[in-house]
Amino acid sequence: MNDPLITTVEGLPQPLAAFVSPEEKKYIEEIKRRGGLPFAVTQHFASLARPLKDDPIRRQFFPDPAEALPDSFGLDDPLGEHLYNAAPRLVHQYKDRALLLACGACFGYCRYCFRRMWLAGGLPFINTDDESAKLRPAELRSAILRPAILPPILAYLCSHPEINEILVSGGDPLTAGNDRLGKLFAALRRARPAILLRVCTRAPVTNPARLCEETIAMFRQYRPLRVVIHLNHPRELSVPCRERLAACAASGIPVLVQTVLLRGINDDPAVLAELIENCLDLKLIPYYLFQLDLAPGTRHFRVPLEQGLAVYRDLEKMFGRPGAAAGFGPGPDLDRKLPVYAVDLPGGGGKIRLHDGVIAGRRTTAAGQVYLLRDSNGKLWEYPEN
Ligand SMILES: *Cc1c(COP(=O)(O)O)cnc(C)c1O
Ligand code: SF4
Prior knowledge:
Blueprint: E1 5-6, H1 14-19, H2 22-34, E2 41-42, H3 43-47, H4 58-61, E3 85-87, E4 90-94, E5 97-101, H5 116-119, H6 137-141, H7 150-159, E6 165-169, H8 178-191, E7 196-201, H9 203-206, H10 213-221, E8 225-230, H11 239-250, E9 255-260, H12 269-281, E10 285-290, H13 305-319, E11 340-345, E12 350-353, E13 359-365, E14 368-374, E15 380-384
Parallel strand pairs: 5-6, 6-7, 7-8, 8-9, 9-10, 10-11
Antiparallel strand pairs: 1-2, 3-4, 4-5, 11-12, 13-14, 14-15
The protein binds pyridoxal-5'-phosphate (PLP) and iron/sulfur cluster (SF4).
């Protein structure tokens, strides 16, 4: 049921393959030689792309030579997750919820991915001294947590009863089969019978067949469980994608939607409004709209913060403002219409909501002009102006 990945220009559908420029070909060769976030896309996702340079689907998966341009703000660990490493592959940053990097593979790679350095296999992602946290080449393909790594994770969850939700993320955990995924869920359930499972995936978009009836039934077996999907553009909602997401939501598994704000892809209120309306029609719950994290080589995707705020103001006019408590912690407001616009503060400051009052000032740094963003404790954090 796993859609085979296309990893070469020749493997792309004909019109897309013919459209690739010599510079792009050269850059793909360079990634193969030097290492880096691999070029890989599912047949399904590639079939949604059009042979145009600025096509919003193509740009998400097709390597752009602009990735190699210098980026003074680029951070290998943009969210500072190593600061909150609780056990290998476990990030505990917020009191009542923790994040498990269950797997290191995806159904194709998003070029703006904030975990690109980890997924590229170059970084011992969490816990720099710990070899077990480093992705091995075999894990990049088959990729779910080796059972040997699980005991310290379960022990940590048992000794921290304040954690009442675990995000199962990666990579994309659905790249593992239901068998192995079910075993992971069962182990988490055994350790903490009432914990809320949050499965973070892009599979419904990139490989909708993966969200088959059997998978939905497995999710139901491990309730309470929510699915959070990564969805950026209305054109990602293909017929099979809509059909599978609607089936999942109708089965009683809440499906939340996270969107990354991307330059030239969805940085337009009309595009985002269409996306949100589509989600509401399918009974999906808009959750977050993320300002881009500062992963190296993603600068060409970054929407200037001022522009992002203007886009969001327009959306608020159309949909109303989400409730003050929305977006943080378990039990998001399931009736909301608008995602919460947020950024994960570079360097480990955590998520904050973005609104006009968040900018406390400006500063010139060695890397360039930055805004100072004020978090809820009054602490100031830097984020590039553009
Ligand atoms: C985003 C995130 C969470 C979940 O935060 P929510 O606001 O509940 O979506 C938990 N842990 C880490 C480390 C995160 O980055
Ligand atoms: S699916 Fe998620 S983890 Fe995988 S490449 Fe895309 S953004 Fe990164």
